[in-house]
Amino acid sequence: MPFPVIRPRRLRANPAMRRLVRETVLAVDDLLYPVFVTYGRDVRKPVEAMPGVYNFSVDTLLEELGPVNELGIPGIMLFGIPETKDELAGGAYDDEGVVQQAIRAVKEEFPDLLVITDVCLCEYTSHGHCGVIKNGCVLNDPTLDLLARTALSHARAGADMVAPSDMMDGRVAAIRRALDEHGYQNVPIMAYAAKYASAYYGPFREAASSAPQFGDRRSYQMDPPNAREALREVRLDIDEGADIVMVKPALAYLDVIQRVRQAFDHPLAAYNVSGEYAMVKAAAQKGWIDERRVVLETLTGIKRAGAEIILTYHAPDAARWLQEGE
Fold first, then answer.
1. Which of 2, 20, 48, 230 sits a CA distance of 20 to 30 A from 105?
2. Is 85 a catalytic residue?
3. Strands (E), the chain
4. In a domain, 6, yes or no
5. Catalytic annotation on 286?
6. Which residues does the Swiss-Prot or TrEMBL record annotate as the active site (predicted)?
7. Which of 85, 195, 281, 303 does the annotation list as catalytic?
């Protein structure tokens, strides 16, 4: 029935009415906060390309997480910045590595805060790639053992969940097998199932000092034009034992998030990555956008596409704004 009988504006008349009919509701419970930890004490090193983001030592990380915990953010994604690097990423699976130390400290201080660990090698390798290198090529199968050892060391330290981000074939199965064989059957895996070789990762590479020393990561991360391939990758990770699957980045891949949501019943995460964060921050600093409104609109869009879990550097600000309400 046409206008004037049908008037959609009736349901937009005031904040209470809009809340009543709102289809997608962003909540603090949807958010995970990615953080970077490095060696030393009293370290709070700003990441120039990501205003408001820092490399923390373990002690300052605990200071940062106090308010985060009070805001009710369910958990963090922990990335490590080692003191030294080598060809086989020894710092990644060292039981006294920086991530392992941080896990123990965070779980002691904030036992109810979920600690999820990024399982990859690029931050720890001298060449900056996510696997073992031979003759200039990233070898898949020899890398699996190192990834499994890394995930196992994180579980031993007390991680609540491990999140392989390397995009090696078969890594979820290798990690699941290693965890199960050592008594960590209850540690879930959040797989970066559809991780694209994206231009949006630039600021992260500054934060993690993880840029490749030669070539790029296109031989193992996904080709940006492909969407059907993402469904195949997600299916493989689910079949190998992934408990949660992830699409990364988020904004340029909202269609992929929606396709994955429609195809699978698994919990679905999306990573609102460093470049997406940095662009919002840069525009906000220029006064070109309303940061609060843009952030909340962006995160709501990611959820509306189908993601139940959103990893975002905006998490503390977004949590505060959500608590303040409209």
1. 48
2. no
3. 31-38, 44-46, 54-56, 75-81, 114-119, 132-134, 137-139, 161-164, 190-195, 244-248, 268-272, 309-312
4. no
5. no
6. 195 (schiff-base intermediate with substrate), 248 (schiff-base intermediate with substrate)
7. 195
